[in-house]
Amino acid sequence: MARTTSIETMPPHATGKARLSGPDPVAPEDDFRFHALLYPNRSLSRDGFFRVLAVVIGVNLVNGFIYLTLGAWPVAFFCGIDILIVWWAFRLSYAQGRRHERVMLTDEALWVSRVLPSGHETRWKLSPYWVRLWIDRPVKHESQLKLTEGGKTLIIGSFLSPKERGELADALSAALSKTRTP
After folding, report:
1. Pair type for strands 110-115 and 120-126
2. How far apart (Å, rounded) are the C-alpha atoms in residues 59 and 135?
3. Model confidence over 19-54: pLDDT tens digits?
4. pTM for the whole structure
5. How many other CB atoms are found less than 10 A from the CB of residue 114?
6. What are phi and psi of 33, to 5 degrees?
7. Is the peptide bond before 138 cis (omega within 30 degrees of 0)?
8. How far from chain centre, in Å, is Cα 142?
9. What domains appear along the chain, each with residue ranges and CATH number?
10. Do 95 and 40 contact (CB within 8 A), yes or no?
11. Where is this region: Disordered (predicted)?
12. Cβ pair 147, 153 in contact under 8 A
C-alpha cells in the first residue's frame, strides 16, 4: 500500500475548543460499541521531572561556581543557559503530552476526535458501514493506522507504539465487524 504523505485528506466534521469535562454530546456512554482514549506515552512523571531538573541544576551550579572561581565566567553563563534549555525541552514534551485522540463507535457513526496541546478539537464522523481500516502488517514503527471512506483518509494513533497501534487496529476492526453484522 502506498504511504500517504499528507496527515489528513478527510475534512473535519467539526472544529473548536475542546471541552475538558462534562458528558460527550456524541452518545451516552452505554451506546458505545467501542470507545478508546489515546494519549502519547510519557515515561517520566512530574516527580521524576523535578528530580532530574534538581540534578541538572545542582551539577550546573557546582560547575558554574568552579569555572567562575577559575576566572572563566562565560562557562558559568552557559551552565545557566543549559538549565533553561533542559527546562524548556521538558515543558515542550509535557505540552505535547496533552495531545490526545478519542475513537467512539456507535451503531450510527464512528467518531474520531483529536485534541491538540492548545486545546483545539477537531472531529470526524464516519459511517461504520463504509469506513475501511488499513494498517501495514507486520506493524512497524513507520506503519500508519488509516481510516478511509469515500477516497479520503484519516490517520489515527500516530503517537502510539507499533504494538499499541496493532492492538488498536485489531480491537477497532473487531468492533466494526460486530457493528456491520445484524
Report:
1. antiparallel
2. 46
3. 443 345 455 555 789 999 999 887 888 899 999 999
4. 0.71
5. 22
6. -85, -25
7. yes
8. 15
9. 14-20+32-41+99-180 (2.30.29), 46-96 (no CATH)
10. no
11. 1-23
12. yes
Angle between helices 46-69 and 73-96 (to 10 degrees): 170
Residue 4 in this model has a pLDDT that exceeds 50? no
Instruction: Extract the C-alpha cell encoding 28.
Output: 451516552
Q: What is the 3-state secondary structure (H, E, C) of the chain?
A: CCCCCCCECCCCCEEEECCCCCCCCCCCHHHCCEEEEECCCCCCCHHHHHHHHHHHHHHHHHHHHHHHHCCCHHHHHHHHHHHHHHHHHHHHHHHHCCCEEEEEECCCCEEEEEECCCCEEEEEEECCCCCEEECCCCCCCCCCEEEEECCEEEEECCCCCHHHHHHHHHHHHHHHHHHHCC
